[in-house]
Fold this sequence. Notes:
By secondary structure, the protein is of the alpha+beta class. It has one domain (3-40, 55-63, 76-144): Pnp Oxidase, Chain A. The chain contains five helices and seven strands, in the order H-H-E-E-E-E-H-E-E-H-H-E. It has helices at residues 3-7, 11-18, 58-65, 97-111, 119-126; strands at residues 24-29, 35-40, 43-45, 48-54, 68-75, 83-94, 130-144.
Amino acid sequence: MSRRDLIRMTPDEVEAFLGGKHTMNVATLSPSGQPHLVAMWYGFIDGAPALWTYSRSQKVMNLRRDPRITCLVETGDTYDTLRGVELVGTGTILEDAAAITQVGQSVYSRYFGVVDELSRPIVERMGAKRVAVRIDVVSVVSWDHAKLGGVY
Length: 152
């Protein structure tokens, strides 16, 4: 078995990892072809990873021109604790209010707590100038160095 196969996460492990409270590094392509990389909090829509952002942000302008996107979620401070998931695919811009609110509530609940009567109007106001981006994943690369059992 290859070293790569040893550290690969199972689909269930990937799902559990992405379900954690992490930051996602999001790469889109600028007009020059240079990667544009930003760190984002993320949520989910219909089971797919998603984020919300201002409609005039650079990443949205990039996705309107070229929908390719690569995202990285990773943790670990030492080699034996490195874990991560790379998602490669396309970013679909969602502009309807229901989808934007759904993603916004997902992001809010993951990082701030339950969306309730007090926070719901805040999330809806925050979404007024935003769009949602659903990440339609084509391929997944994952690693969990703890699976090496201390052998590097």
